[in-house]
Specification:
The complex is a heterotetramer of chains A (383), B (314), C (432) and D (599). Chain A is built from 15 helices and four strands. Chain A is mainly alpha-helical and 383 residues long. In chain A, a hairpin with a 4-residue loop joins strand 2 and strand 3. Chain A is globular. In chain B, 70% of the residues lie in helices and 0% in strands. Chain B is elongated. Chain B starts with a helix and ends in a 7-residue tail after the last helix. Chains in contact: A-B, A-C, A-D, B-C, B-D.
Chain lengths: 383, 314, 432, 599
């Protein structure tokens, strides 16, 4: 849900619009000569950003790990304790077995070493080695992301634009209210409402990822699992019934995410459109005899998109947080669902891995965002 | 040769108060012309009313622990709205109305506490980073980056589990995890203000850093931070609610909206005769949260429209 | 002398949160064919608003509430003129940048930062000379096809050609029609009886149908990737742009076209803006303080450029400035504006030697002279806020020779001596 | 705005279209069960799907100590013998040809030697033959592996009189010759030599932790190779590192087809199973956490059995199209134990740690009057009626109905606030009453019954005297485990399910000073300890009866805690399911071989 995101978003959109990046690693340079080619500088920019990424990830791992070390071993071992019947001295034995009593640095470097050996540890919540768990859960999330993100962006930008163009007309008001309500709704509540109405009352759009029959097919023999993304695999296996079934199950969560997250883009897009509309170059375009359509599409939109792009990285973080709740409610066993459990059961290996993974994605997304930004806005030089 | 001279010295005869002030007055005027502001305020005031008069509206059965919701018996099956429970009950007969009313206090406690604390931290770190810049800035901001890279909800969950569930720990955790936002805002504002003429002038006239910081820089950058804060109260409550929903807020039976919604998860589908039998469970507590947050967001939105440099005078 | 364009007491308001800003208070200006006309006044007196109103590009929250803007250069009707405020937006777009065009102060902000120079200049051609562009493109393609090409490339070129042909055809039919329809509509505007209203509706419908020209073409032009074929035609446009820039004395234009505004110097930017305006050889060029915030040498260059263009391409220039010196230098006639009113209009020489309006006198007095010894004398008081402007003559609070009639009624613009108009109670017969 | 409306409409249309298109996969909830009934359509007729929420921990018999894992293992592996039908005393042979008894001379040496003739012609899923060596290996292997938190302790107790293969510091004390001495192959049979005679031994041998595994298969997959040198390697494996964690080859009626962790375990019929051929070809244990989902799947017949929690029995009994087996008493019970030796160092649960009204002393409950007071203040009727909703049999002592030597006459203390008050007045020489107290009662979050019960108890006690304060707090499982370990909780809410149907299995943990719960609560009564040890080793039923009756009396006399109830369970099947036989100790899932589908 919008946990965190709007914090960043509002901070970003109303006070940092002049700074294209959240990292301050991107410079707006007014260069008077146009001889220089920026390919080289672009390359070393990317390299520097990758190094920076590694640095951040290291920091993240250190931070998260030390936080987890604050938790007493007796609690961390609980991830492995499944029943009340286990006597205390056996718990002690487990603590020793997993070396939870060692000083934090020792544990950290043990963990680090293991990672470099490719052993990410065993996740008690996934009941499998972390990597297996990841392989199992990630496609589910990825699929949802792949379906919802484009929708979120399109809907958000479209409605935002309409709102700006039709400023202070009924449509605008409707959209503004939609947006503000949209991001005031608790993710979980909206999810439950959708579920109650569609699934409980109408008996359609069930939770989960597949219907029982489809499940049999997918897990049965004769189904080759290539991507792990149900819809894609369905097409590869030429099973349109499965494809539809998967869509049928992914529809509700997608709607849920779209309603919630597009609200933010909507808002930002509208305001930045309005800002752009007031600029002098719009006047120039008009004086040139440009029809309104051209003014909006060529002159205004590109400029208006800049701030939207800027925050899309942050939006992604919001989306990930939304996953935790959405997946929990719609019983889609993906990364979000996994993380929620891991966090509740203090499944240290899983938490560490997921946090790092998401951190990686987050930083990566921001890098891409900066590149796109630079591509759209010629004033920006990366380097 | 131009008449700019003439127009210049005309301008100087304008109002000679602090540049921010007249601006502020104007903004306030504008703020209250906006219907959204009024609606938002109305909603918030309504909740304030609930919070203040909770003891009268819903007299607590156990004075020393008013947040514990009253219940008649232990029937786990929730019962629909009736004379004695106007809004129905949660599983094991906790009165929803009572929960809604007393939950208001919790909501405010969380929202205000977290935002205020974050604001403070943000101001301190932000002004240090922004004003002095250099290595300090680097350090603070890189740490902020690290925090941004951590998925907040997950980290919050783990932390709450670690320091023991309950609203107080939710508050603490949110404070720990959210400071970078404010720090950033304050910093970027200060970076803008820092090089303004009157600051330079003050510096030239040999005023001490602290003095400049407190007399000139902060007063001008604190605004936006406060605005962000006002916009974030709602959001904070949302996150807290989400945590409670995931089972990390207070225990069931305590007046906490998120936890109340959580109890309804097993009652989405009603019995055969009426599939929507438990609508009140799902609907009422969640609606309360939504309304509360909506109130703050409406206000925050209006405030932003007014104070946001880009949206001014449109 | 032939009138070229005329505004008849124009009222433009800005609906801001502070209140309604009455920016124009019945402005009447006449620009004759072949002259350079100056509009003088302090910043914020409504010069720019006037010209923007003339082009109907007043941006929100501004709105033209009353008045007429009549043009006389369309062949359609020279005697009566056409009130463009009553014409359709489509008509206006065909007018703007084609027969009337405009250059702005702050060249840096009036260029779109994210679009290349070539594109921004080229747009003018695309809007108003599209047919020509297409024809040339097709001609080029024919030439290329005449000598032997690899068959795939050939296929591609043939395809492009076909599409361009189609577009051209559509465009021509559209233009002929739209003009016709628009004219009819305009005719109807003036007499309004029952069946003409009905016809009006019909015509409007027809125009709308025309507007979405040919679905195929529009689709091909807009759809991502498919629209790639447009590059070919862009090439032609580019050629023209380069030519234009060179003619405006831009050094190595074929590199400049690929630049973005921020890569150019201020003077260069201003040249580009001018280029955009002149692309289609307008009849009237409106120059809105083109030289402000440029350093003096550049200023001179720009001014010379405009002068020389005046001789070559454009028939008339409407030159806006707060710089009396400049007015004296280049204008034939000029009006002095104050707070949304025209206070005085006359030959430039007349204005400088025999200013009638107290404000004009004040202005002239406040210009520093070389041999000046005593301190520079100024007009007391400040420009009034136009939300609630002074009643009657808006200048009266600052007027040295204020009379009790001034606050009461607004002085009409009267022809004091031939060709010298002034709006001041000193000269109305209404002096009691 | 219009556009938005259109969008919504399109969505709605799409939704309905989906619904129409997939009529039989997701029929509108209302008519689903009815339809099935009248048309008599059986969904996936030769597959049996058992849905519940317990996650499978490990498929290694030596590790599995929870219902879900156990249930799966029983379908794959077999033990030497198992219970007949729903009896808890009568055994039937599985991999042995005869059930040892003193009568048939297979139990000798005063009940210290057991001989099991191993049946022939039994095949493992891998095709390997069952031999006495394999059986012996299986037992030794399980003892050697002995994972932490596993059930192997119950085999160590009779064979070696210890409770595990490691001592307190984790050093391995189990040696090869101990094993060879205890478990021997003689001809066609396997012989066990016990440390001392142990009455429940036979019933212990029904537990999944002594399932017979496929020796060659196991060794091929890196399991213990049978030598002393290899013991250290396989002993005490980490979670998920047990050799047989996710692979299996047993003699059971079903073989493991697939374990999609956290989602489902799929079994396929083992065609050359030695016993009668099971009717169901394919059985699935599917994990469905969400109750509403599980419920709907059951109603629509997408699953044949859905686990239902007591709180929903009432509403589910109304649902059409189901076959319900009501009120089956499990061999399990729940109780609240008073902690008489609370760890007092930085323990937030006991406040000030003194009897000053703001806390309680560490030995608060060592005063019998306190215990009696609390016990009398406990309202059995309400709990059974409203919290457990009548799905429990009131229990007086740990030894519950269905166990041998259960004393049906005994009654627990009645709900009587008067008595409670007078006892609390007496407690701590009256200081308790005048100063009052405050402490926390803790439960693991999510366990609603515990939560309600403790809250009710707290409310009753605190209603006696405004100076009494009890905070009922929920803690996460992690915290809960930690607090148990450190013995921090003033009262323990405890649940115990039988490992084997013998009073020893209940008396020991609850009452023996070394037992799981008693040790946690610091209860130590040498006389009781002596009795329990005798009870275990005593062979003569009559004598045992006396012992256990005594123990039950002593429980009530010492008021170690409040025995709450013995859970009774409803089992909900789709009405086409046939052949379910309830067993008081059954796992979840049960053995699939008993089922068939049809009307």
């Amino acid at each position: 849900m919008q946990a965190g995101a709007p914090f960043l978003l509002d901070g970003a959109c109303c006070f940092q619009h002049n700074n294209p990046s959240h990292h301050g690693c991107i410079y707006v340079i007014k260069s008077s000569s146009f001889q220089e080619s920026n390919h080289l500088s672009l390359l070393n920019y990317i390299i520097r950003r990758l190094l920076f990424m590694i640095l951040v990830l290291f920091g993240v791992s250190l931070l998260v790990f030390s936080v987890l070390m604050l938790i007493p071993p007796g609690m961390r071992v609980a991830a492995y304790v499944t029943s009340e019947k286990i006597p205390p001295d056996q718990i002690e034995a487990m603590i020793k077995l997993y070396g939870l009593n060692d000083p934090a640095p020792v544990q950290y470097f043990r963990w680090l070493a293991k990672i470099f050996r490719g052993d990410l540890g065993f996740s008690a919540t996934a009941e499998a080695p972390v990597l297996d768990g990841f392989k199992r859960y990630f496609p589910v999330t990825l699929e949802l992301v792949l379906y919802s993100t484009p929708l979120i962006i399109l809907v958000g930008i479209w409605l935002g634009t309409v709102g700006a163009i039709k400023k202070d007309r009924p449509a605008d008001h409707a959209i503004r209210i939609l947006a503000i309500v949209g991001y005031s709704l608790p993710t979980f509540w909206l999810g439950l409402l959708l579920l109650m109405f569609f699934y409980g009352f109408l008996g359609i759009f069930p939770p989960g990822t597949l219907s029982v029959e489809a499940n049999e097919v997918v897990f049965g023999s004769g189904w080759n699992r290539i991507t792990g993304l149900l819809t894609i695999d369905a097409i590869i296996n030429w099973r349109w019934d499965i494809f539809l079934d998967a869509l049928y199950h992914i529809a509700l969560p997608t709607i849920n995410l779209v309603i919630l997250d597009s609200a933010l883009i909507m808002r930002l897009m509208r305001s930045s459109m309005l800002e752009a509309l007031g600029q002098d170059y719009v006047r120039t375009a008009l004086a040139k005899g440009a029809p309104n359509r051209v003014v909006y599409q060529t002159h205004v939109r590109r400029n208006a998109l800049l701030p939207v792009i800027t925050i899309s990285g942050v939006l992604f973080a919001g989306l990930m947080a939304g996953m935790v709740i959405t997946e929990t409610i719609f019983v889609r066993k993906g990364i979000g669902w996994w993380m929620a459990r891991a966090a509740l059961q203090l499944d240290v290996p899983a938490i560490m891995f997921n946090v790092l993974f998401l951190g990686l994605i987050f930083v990566g997304v921001n890098l891409i965002v900066d590149l796109i930004y630079a591509a759209i806005d010629p004033r920006v030089r990366l380097g | 040769m131009s008449t700019e001279v003439l127009t210049e010295d005309m301008k100087t005869q304008g109002p000679s108060r602090h540049p921010g002030w007249s601006e502020f007055v104007f903004s306030m005027k504008r703020l209250f012309k906006n219907p959204l502001t009024i609606i938002g305020l109305a909603i918030i005031l309504f909740f304030v009313f609930l919070a203040i008069f909770a003891p009268i509206l819903a007299p607590p059965p156990r004075a020393h622990d008013p947040f514990l919701m009253p219940h008649k018996g232990w029937q786990i099956q929730p019962s629909p709205p009736s004379a004695e429970n106007p809004l129905g009950t949660l599983p094991s007969q906790y009165d929803i109305l009572y929960g809604v009313i007393w939950g208001t206090r919790n909501a405010f406690r969380i929202g205000i506490a977290v935002v205020a604390a974050n604001l403070l931290v943000g101001l301190i770190l932000g002004s240090i980073a922004g004003y002095f810049g250099g290595i300090l800035d680097e350090i603070v901001m890189r740490i902020a980056d690290i925090f941004y890279a951590i998925p907040i909800l997950v980290m919050a969950m783990a932390l709450v589990v670690a320091i023991g569930r309950g609203l107080s720990s939710v508050v603490v955790v949110l404070i720990i995890l959210n400071w970078p936002t404010y720090t950033r805002v304050v910093r970027s504002e200060i970076l803008v203000v820092r090089n303004m003429d009157y600051i330079l002038a003050a510096r030239a006239s040999g005023a001490s850093h602290l003095r400049i910081l407190f007399k000139h820089v902060l007063p001008n950058s604190i605004f936006s931070a406060i605005i962000v804060a006002s916009m974030n109260v709602g959001v904070t409550v949302l996150i807290a609610a989400a945590l409670s929903f995931l089972g990390l807020g207070s225990d069931s039976g305590y007046a906490d909206w998120g936890a109340m919604v959580a109890t309804c998860r097993n009652y989405i589908v009603g019995p055969a005769e009426n599939r929507l039998a438990y609508w009140y469970l799902v609907f009422i507590p969640g609606f309360t949260i939504a309304l509360f947050v909506l109130g703050w967001n409406l206000l925050g939105d209006a405030v932003r429209d007014v104070f946001d440099p880009r949206m001014r005078r449109r | 002398m032939e009138k070229l364009i005329e505004t008849q007491d124009l009222y433009t308001d800005f609906f801001t949160f502070e209140g309604v800003v009455k920016a124009l208070n019945g402005v009447s200006v006449i620009v004759n064919e072949g002259e350079t006309y100056g509009l003088v006044g302090e910043s914020g007196c409504g010069k720019s608003v006037t010209v923007r109103s003339m082009m109907r590009i007043v941006q929100t929250p501004g709105k033209i509430v009353d008045g007429k803007v009549v043009i006389f250069f369309r062949a359609e009707d020279r005697s009566r003129g056409i009130d463009i405020l009553r014409r359709s937006e489509t008509y206006m777009t065909s007018l703007r940048g084609d027969s009337i065009s405009m250059i702005f102060q702050e060249a840096s902000t009036s260029l779109n930062p994210v679009l290349s120079i070539g594109f921004q200049v080229g747009e003018s051609f695309n809007f108003h000379r599209r047919a020509q562009m297409l024809e040339e493109t097709i001609k080029d393609l024919n030439k290329e096809l005449s000598n032997r090409v690899f068959f795939l490339t050939r296929g591609w070129k043939v395809l492009q050609k076909a599409v361009f042909r189609r577009e051209l055809a559509v465009l021509q039919s559209y233009e002929s029609e739209i003009d016709h329809v628009d004219h009819e509509l305009y005719e109807i505007e003036n007499q309004n009886d029952k069946e003409s209203l009905h016809r009006k509706v019909l015509l409007n419908r027809r125009r709308d149908r025309l507007r979405e020209k040919s679905f195929l073409v529009e689709f091909l032009k807009r759809f991502p990737f498919i629209s790639y074929y447009q590059r070919r035609q862009a090439k032609t446009v580019r050629r023209h742009v380069v030519k234009l820039l060179r003619s405006l004395g831009v050094s190595n234009p074929d590199r400049v076209v690929d630049c973005h505004p921020h890569e150019l110097s201020g003077g260069m930017q201003q040249r580009i803006v001018i280029a955009i305006a002149l692309a289609c050889h307008p009849v009237l060029l409106i120059a809105d303080e083109p030289t402000s915030n440029l350093d003096v040498t550049i200023q001179a260059q720009i001014v010379d450029l405009i002068k020389q263009l005046k001789q070559t391409i454009i028939s008339s220039v409407l030159f806006i400035t707060h710089d009396l010196g400049l007015v004296a230098e280049i204008c034939d006639r000029a009006s002095v504006m104050y707070a949304g009113d025209i206070s005085e209009t006359a030959e430039v020489r007349e204005i400088f030697h025999n200013p009638l309006h107290p404000y004009t006198q004040g202005l002239l007095r406040s210009v520093p002279k070389v041999e000046q010894a005593d301190k520079l004398n100024t007009i007391p008081g400040t420009v009034p806020a136009l939300i609630n402007p002074p009643s009657g003559c808006r200048f009266h609070p600052r007027c040295p020779s204020k009379m009790d009639v001034c606050p009461q009624e607004k002085p009409p613009l009267i022809e004091h001596s031939p060709g010298h108009w002034v709006a001041c109670h000193l000269y109305t017969d209404g002096m009691k | 705005m219009k556009k938005i409306l259109v969008l919504l409409m399109v969505l709605a249309v799409a939704a309905t279209a989906f619904a129409g298109g997939k009529g039989e996969e997701a029929p509108a909830v209302e008519e689903a069960p009815k339809k099935v009934v009248e048309e008599k359509v059986i969904k996936n007729p030769d597959t049996f799907i058992w849905s519940s929420y317990g996650t499978v921990d490990s498929l290694d018999p030596a590790k599995a100590y929870d219902n879900a894992s156990g249930g799966c293992i029983y379908n794959i592996y077999e033990t030497l013998m198992y219970f007949k039908g729903s009896s808890t005393e009568e055994l039937e042979a599985q991999l042995t040809t005869q059930i040892p008894s003193v009568a048939n001379g297979l139990i000798t040496n005063g009940g210290k030697t057991y001989r099991f003739p191993i049946s022939k012609g039994v095949k493992f899923h891998s095709g390997n033959e069952l031999t006495p060596e394999v059986v012996a290996y299986s037992f030794k292997r399980h003892l050697v592996t002995d994972p932490d938190g596993g059930p192997m302790w119950m085999v160590f107790e009779p064979l070696f009189g210890t409770y595990g293969s490691r001592d307190g510091d984790g050093n391995i004390v189990l040696t090869m010759d101990m094993l060879d001495k205890a478990i021997q192959v003689q001809g066609d049979s396997v012989v066990f030599n016990l440390a001392q005679s142990f009455a429940p031994f036979l019933s212990i041998l029904t537990y999944n932790c002594v399932s017979v595994i496929d020796k060659d298969f196991a060794i091929a997959n890196g399991d213990w190779n049978g030598t002393a040198a290899d013991i250290a390697r396989v002993n005490g494996p980490e979670e998920g590192k047990e050799p047989l964690y996710e692979i299996a080859s047993g003699t059971g009626p079903y073989k493991l087809a697939r374990w999609d962790k956290g989602n489902e375990v799929v079994f396929e019929r083992f065609e050359d199973y030695w016993g009668p051929k099971p009717a169901i070809a394919r059985a699935i244990y599917r994990i469905v956490e969400e109750w509403s989902t599980r419920k709907l799947m059951l109603l629509q017949g997408d699953v044949d059995r859905g686990r239902v929690d007591p709180m929903y029995f009432e509403e589910m009994r109304k649902e059409p199209g189901l076959k319900v087996y009501q009120k089956n008493a499990r061999l399990a019970n729940a109780g609240i134990n008073y902690n008489m030796k609370i760890t007092s160092v930085d323990n937030p649960a006991i406040g000030s740690g003194k009897l000053d009204g703001r806390g309680i002393p560490a030995d608060f409950f060592s005063d019998k009057d306190v215990r009696l007071g609390f016990t009398y203040a406990f309202d059995f009727e309400t709990m059974l009626r409203e919290i457990v909703k009548g799905n429990g049999i009131p229990a007086a002592t740990p030894i519950c109905s269905g166990l041998p030597f259960f004393n049906p006459q005994l009654k627990g203390y009645p709900f009587d606030l008067k008595k409670a008050e007078e006892h609390l007045k007496k407690a701590w020489g009256g200081k308790l009453w005048q100063n009052g107290f405050e402490f926390d009662m803790l439960f693991n979050t999510g366990n609603e019954v515990r939560e309600q019960t403790l809250k009710m108890m707290a409310e009753n006690v605190t209603s006696l005297n405004p100076k009494f304060k009890i905070n009922v707090r929920g803690v996460e499982w992690a915290t809960y485990v930690d607090m148990q370990r450190q013995r921090l909780m003033p009262v323990y809410y405890i649940g115990w399910g039988a490992d084997y149907p013998d009073p020893h299995n209940f008396a020991y943990p609850y009452q023996h000073s070394q037992g799981l719960f008693a040790s946690r609560t610091g209860y130590n009564n040498p006389e009781v300890d002596k009795l329990i040890e005798e009870g275990a080793t005593e062979a003569d039923p009559a004598k045992r009866k006396a012992i256990y009756y005594k123990l039950q009396d002593m429980w009530l006399e010492d008021v170690i805690g409040i025995m709450l109830y013995q859970p009774v369970d409803d089992f909900y099947f789709k009405d086409w399911v046939k052949g379910f036989v309830f067993h008081p100790m059954q796992n979840d899932p049960v053995m699939f071989k008993q089922f068939s589908k049809g009307y």
